[in-house]
Amino acid sequence: MIRFLLSFAVVGTGLLVWNLPSGHGRQLLIDGSPRLMTLFIFVPLLSAWITLGAALYVRPTRLFNTKAPPKLVQVFLGFSSGLVSMILAVCGTVLLDRTLGDIPIMILSSIIGTSVIVRLSRTIRPGHCARCDYDLRSSIAFGRCPECGLAL
Fold first, then answer.
1. Domain extents in the chain
2. DSSP secondary-structure letter at 125?
């Protein structure tokens, strides 16, 4: 989960740094650095963390299994979730800026982006191996998955 959230935060950090080359962005960073860091990094990261925790509580996925975590996939999906969230945030800011503030738009976009990515990942089915999805109902007495060797 940490890898997912860190790679999610990389996208917000990249969006923050992307504003620096222009003179306006540099001045904005000096004047409003805490607000920008809150807007681009902390608010989306916190809402993604809460959404991810709630989604995994309701529907555990193979992606975040503690026994066999696919590390690189977590990083890729966290980065993808961050990109989806930031694209939604930019579109939402353009369309809804007069009715909603920046922070609610960032919260909604990161909730939607994280939910979409988590929903697309495969679930852990009861009676199946968390790593390879082998049916363990007949071989659970051995203590290991006969297909991949994962301890049960």
1. 2-121, 127-152
2. -
What is the C-alpha to C-alpha distance for residues 73 and 81, in angstroms, rounded to an integer? 12
Give the chain's mean pLDDT. Answer: 78
Write out the two tokens for 109. Answer: 């976009």
Q: How far apart are CA 45 and CA 64, in angstroms?
A: 17
* Position 137 confidence tier, pLDDT thresholds 50, 70, 90: confident
Write out pLDDT tens, residues 23-40: 555 555 555 567 777 777
- Could you give the CA distance from residue 92 to residue 144 in angstroms, rounded to a whole number? 48
As given in the structure block, the two tokens for residue 59 are: 């529907």
Q: What is the pTM of this model?
A: 0.72
